[in-house]
Write a structure and sequence with these properties.
The chain has helices spanning about 35-45, 60-75, 100-110, 130-145, 155-165, 185-195, 235-250, 255-265, 280-285, 295-305, and strands spanning about 5, 15, 20, 50-55, 80-85, 85, 95, 120, 150-155, 170-175, 195-200, 270-275. It has about 325 residues and is α/β, with parallel strands linked by helices. The protein has a single domain, classed as TIM Barrel, CATH 3.20.20.100. An eight-stranded parallel sheet has the order 3-4-5-8-9-10-11-12. It has a two-stranded antiparallel ribbon with strand order 1-2. Helix 5 links the parallel strand 9 (about 150-155) and strand 10. Helix 2 packs across helix 3 (about 100-110). The radius of gyration is 19 Å and the shape is globular.
Length: about 325
């Protein structure tokens, strides 16, 4: 069975309902190399996962460069998205200006070995930039033929509605998974009403919903998960215990943990497109069974009992990590 094809926003290209997040290819979560990255991308193509998502800041261009080399060598038929607007610090800032976004986009296109991308996100929204002005900037990039459409990331519903009224938003990308449920407070519904794709990043809870949950001791020094509240004790142990119950449940169904967790996200609506990430083909292949899973009402009830809304201990970001994220509740 293959993943359902859905619109990437109303009138946008058809993409599989499961995408690939390429941040891990930059070594953000551990060492990798070009051969392993290429094998991972080969596995994505073989599994029908042809909607790929990256950003200029992933390894400061490394992820885009790896993808660009793969595209130049193998010419895959893919739908491609990238992002810009985060300016590394210290201090870290957000720049939504036309000059900045155009310059960063042009550099991304060179690294990716393409003339345009299908989707270009403002990686974060600067509160000093009215959403209407940001939408006008993105429309200029569309008119210039550099992007097929634009998206917003880690934003509140009000920002989306205001930008969309000026120039239609193709996609909104926010964190969403069984342990990060904030988008259910209006954002997913708004996207459905407006015909916007909701692209769910970290749908496997940053490595927790795997056959073995990631452990803080196995994270490299300096990695942002080491200071993420959900991975710090005692929160980590509480979270692991809850997810272990879900792991046993998924295995009892004959499913991988990743496939079951992704099936839950896919069930939230046809406009919801999760983009898990990995740096190995083995982990990617654990996702593929999600295409064969149709969760019943009983399945959903059992999942809700195992992992009720709000089960996660600790915020999804530390205060410093959340500094550029729009909060709306």
């Amino acid at each position: 069975m293959t993943f359902k094809q859905v619109e990437l926003g109303r009138g946008g290209p058809l993409v599989p309902q499961l995408g690939f997040g390429a941040m891990s290819l930059a070594g953000m979560f551990g060492p990798t190399d070009e051969a392993t990255s290429f094998a991972t991308l080969d596995a994505a193509i073989a599994g029908g996962i042809t909607f790929w998502d990256t950003a200029n800041i992933y390894g400061m261009g490394i992820s885009e460069t790896v993808l660009g080399k793969y595209i130049a060598e193998k010419a895959p038929q893919i739908t491609l998205a990238t992002k810009a607007s985060i300016v590394p610090g210290p201090p870290r800032t957000i720049d939504n200006s036309y000059d900045h976004l155009r310059s960063e986009l042009e550099q991304s296109l060179k690294r990716l070995n393409v003339d345009r991308v299908d989707l270009f996100y403002a990686h974060r929204h600067n509160p000093d930039t009215p959403p209407e002005a940001l939408a006008e900037t993105m429309q200029r990039l569309i008119d210039a033929g550099l992007i097929g459409g634009y998206g917003l990331s880690e934003v509140a519903p009000g920002t989306v509605a205001r930008a969309h009224a000026v120039s239609p938003v193709r996609a909104v990308q926010n964190e969403y998974s069984l342990w990060s449920r904030q988008p259910e407070l209006g954002l997913i519904d708004l996207c459905e009403r407006l015909g916007i794709a909701f692209v769910a990043f970290s749908p496997l809870a940053r490595g927790m919903f795997g056959e073995v949950s990631i452990h803080p001791d196995n994270m490299r020094e300096g990695e942002f998960r080491r200071v993420n509240p959900r991975f710090i004790e005692p929160n980590y142990s509480y979270n692991l215990a809850a997810i272990d119950g879900f792991r046993d449940w998924a295995h009892g169904k004959g499913w991988t943990v990743a496939a079951a967790a992704l099936a839950w996200v896919l069930a939230r609506g046809e406009h919801v497109i999760p983009i898990p990430g990995t740096r190995t083909p083995g982990h990617l292949n654990e996702w593929l069974g999600a295409a064969d899973i149709t969760l019943s009402a009983q399945d959903m009830a059992e999942i809700a009992a195992l992992l009720p809304v709000g089960f996660a201990h600790g915020d999804r970001y530390s205060d410093s990590q959340a500094a550029s994220v729009e909060r709306y509740c």
